[in-house]
């Protein structure tokens, strides 16, 4: 595995050299062979447990922990950083694109702030399942290469077996990375980071000066909108959209407290610490907008020495977020309903349906799946939607089925199924269900999996379901 260092030139204290702490008895639990091949990862089977637990004996690997700030639930922390993650470096794929290889849970770093730098097996396996499912759903996301059991206990409430998860990302540049340099007044560092982000994610930007960084923000805004729209298309609730968990690439990162919505409701929240519903299903666009505004603030010194002028140039991009989002959001509903063209009354058609879903506590995924298949005559629409569906059918055409089938998954990583798998792992260090489940999640739209349990919402609803940050 040939690793390249990407962040060491940005600024002092940005990529801090730090080695993982070896663990006692690493065992490889999950290995993503397809991803390993795409990334030309040639670590021999016998060495994988050691390498991806952080038991490194290769002096070519120079791990770092990255510094970043973050607005957590709206409150600014200037120094967060990788408290339980080590970036080993980046590997080149077959197209020469670089991908960060990061170990999460491989021990404390200079950013740990008293934390143990470790990860329990449950959150590690959960991140693997969720991120691979999201990738198959076509949602931009970081990926998982491996999960290794550490053979050690992590002291949580209650104590749990430990694990290290290997995360793959197109970069680890966060909104919080810019805030970190901006809060230190490091303009040269900001520029170096923005140029690095542009080279990796937006290489088509070829202007210089303020234009360059305005174009950068415009691109990030576009990517964040696309991300939230694809989350909402599949019913995903991120749960902790802090600026440190917002990647400039527009990929989903940090699967700690995320969950899938079952019954449709814009107000759905699962995270135990999100008491105000800041990160509720229907508030995710507002938060992405707010996070982009925090990025814009960090970029001020790259736009002009005159702050007022810089604000005047950046503001239209932030103020235009809502309109741009609404446009993409309407398109998403049009696809989910296979609407023919763009007509007056479509907005009302969508809101009437969503109102019915909420009133009758209907499952989001299964309702759209049924609507899709009803066009083939293979299933019948629920009686609660019968009157509405007469209006809807007049808006469909011969292409609607294909369009809807690509927008509406049947297989989503349902919370209660993942919990069953995680309980197996916590108790036995393995789950007989997982391999088949991961295989089924690979084709969520045209699934052939013949297991009704996997498609079913929890029998008792999910009113008591809670997620935790996974620390
Ligand atoms: P998260 O909630 O995962 O986004 O983490 C927020 C911050 O807490 C980041 O700076 C993490 O690196 C840090 N953190 C989370 N868990 C741990 C841990 N077990 N040990 C040290 N730092 C941690
Ligand atoms: Mg995080």
From TrEMBL:
Gene: ydiU
UniProt key word Nucleotidyltransferase: yes
Record: residues binding Mg(2+): 245, 254
Enzyme class: transferase
Active site location: 244 (proton acceptor)
Function: Nucleotidyltransferase involved in the post-translational modification of proteins. It can catalyze the addition of adenosine monophosphate (AMP) or uridine monophosphate (UMP) to a protein, resulting in modifications known as AMPylation and UMPylation.
Cofactor: Mg(2+); Mn(2+)
Protein name: Protein nucleotidyltransferase YdiU
Organism this protein belongs to: Pseudoalteromonas prydzensis
Catalytic activity: L-histidyl-[protein] + UTP = N(tele)-(5'-uridylyl)-L-histidyl-[protein] + diphosphate; L-threonyl-[protein] + ATP = 3-O-(5'-adenylyl)-L-threonyl-[protein] + diphosphate; L-seryl-[protein] + UTP = O-(5'-uridylyl)-L-seryl-[protein] + diphosphate; L-seryl-[protein] + ATP = 3-O-(5'-adenylyl)-L-seryl-[protein] + diphosphate
